Amino acid sequence: MNPFFERDLRISRRQFFGKAASGIGVLALGGLLSQDGFASSLQGLAHQRHGTPPLPGLPHFAPKAKRVIVLWQGGAPSQVDLFDHKPGLAAHRLEELPESVRAGTRLSTMTASQGKYPILPAIKPFRQYGNSGTWMSELLPHIGSVADDICLVRTMNTDAVNHAPGVTFFLTGSQIPGRPSMGAWASYGLGSMTDELPSFIVMTSSDEKKTCGQLFFDYYWGSGFIPSKFQGVQFRSDGDPVLYLTNPPGMSADLRRKVLNDIAELDHQRLSEYGDPEIETRITQYELAFKMQTSVPELTDISKEPKSVLDMYGPDVLKKGTYAHNCLLARRLIERGVRFVQLMHSGWDQHSNLDTQLALQCRDTDQPSAALVKDLKQRGLLDDTIVLWCGEFGRTVFVQGDINRRDGHGRDHFGKCYSLWVAGGGFKGGKVHGETDDFSYKVVKDPVGVHDMQATILHQLGIDHERLTYRYQGRDFRLTDVSGQVVRPIIS
């Protein structure tokens, strides 16, 4: 049997009506394409639209933010050493963490059967920063300098105890891969603000010695079961920022334009036959890629940035692929209309090198993170841009490994309480939310779950997290699954 006829026999009721309605979609698409240059290879980029509209009814209410920048700290920063000030721990150094405190806590297999659990206080002193007097480690003087602009949440908690499930949970709402990521949901619901660049862009970096063995899987920025045009586009640090951005040898811009027109015509025919959203994605992405040949080189050329700005981001800003360089590009991206930028930096998984690696990691990320907040604020962009600094979970207050070996001890994964901070986009600056117990082990006041933080981010974008859904396999899915409450004390 002809496989195409066989597919028609197996078509579902939903697919049938989608196919029947595709004629209207093709007419609308044709109108858009006539503006974008598909109708005539001579028009090229003469007519450019400015983004794509949101879903009908969105935003649900007036948004406080238009854009999001996620500064992902992969490997899990230690809240004990950086954000959760516990001066009383110094008197209990290397004493056994009481069983009454540890009882019922899920640990990773690396320490669940550990014979002893000696308490290790913060390895560097804390100090107060800003008019708010926020306590943070002296390892973070630059983030401390923006203490009055950030909201520090000390009572995050998660069910995950391993890296990949923890990252997947925070960024997609499920520990199991396959759900749309937060950036994909935002792009799907709110549309794009530019036709020159993707709505959702991802960049990755690592500490210089690559001490963290965790990988960044592409499903951390995937679109799951919603159309793939909403997935994050990864910018690379070497060669072309995006694969195949440069024309092949011997192909001029005019020839490439004509080839794309011909491919689009074939795709139009296929779309009219099957109404497959992935065909529409292909049409959209081919045209976007053509426009990015002009927009991306200009975007990534930081040579015209003032020296004062480059100095603010630190010495690594001129090195492509570094966290500092990516932070500056994040600002340039949102200036040009990108809605969601996700920077993913690894190196925080300090099981056995806490005494050496933590300071290096802070040195690499502290100044650029703070510079991004300052830069956005100076340009009037922080008010409607959310900057979220976070990891997948925290670290244990007790020692993992041999405390007598400087390069042989650290802290294990810990999800019962950890810290993150968020700035801009209607979040309260100079605010510290929540309290943990005397051991930074359990939340005692104002807990914030992963779905709660997701709901709050969406809320600031004007989205009711319970109403942004996508039907898949007979069920309405959402980023926050079946839970999540907006954390109202941390927003204006």
Folded structure, characterized:
With 492 residues, this protein is α/β, with parallel strands linked by helices. The protein has a single domain (60-251, 305-490), classed as Alkaline Phosphatase, subunit A (3-Layer(aba) Sandwich), CATH 3.40.720.10. Helix content is 33%, strand content 16%. It is built from 14 helices and 19 strands. It has helices spanning 3-9, 13-20, 22-36, 79-82, 99-102, 141-144, 163-172, 182-190, 253-274, 277-300, 307-313, 323-335, 354-378, 450-460, and strands spanning 67-74, 126-129, 134-137, 150-157, 200-206, 233-235, 340-346, 385-390, 394-395, 400-401, 409-410, 413-414, 418-423, 431-433, 435-436, 443-445, 448-449, 470-472, 475-477. Strands 1, 4, 5, 6, 7, 8, 13, 14 and 17 form a 9-stranded mixed beta sheet that branches. Strand 18 (470-472) and strand 19 (475-477) form a beta hairpin. It is globular and about 75 Å long. It starts with a helix and ends in a 15-residue tail after the last strand. The relative contact order is 0.20. Residues 1-49 have low confidence and may be disordered.
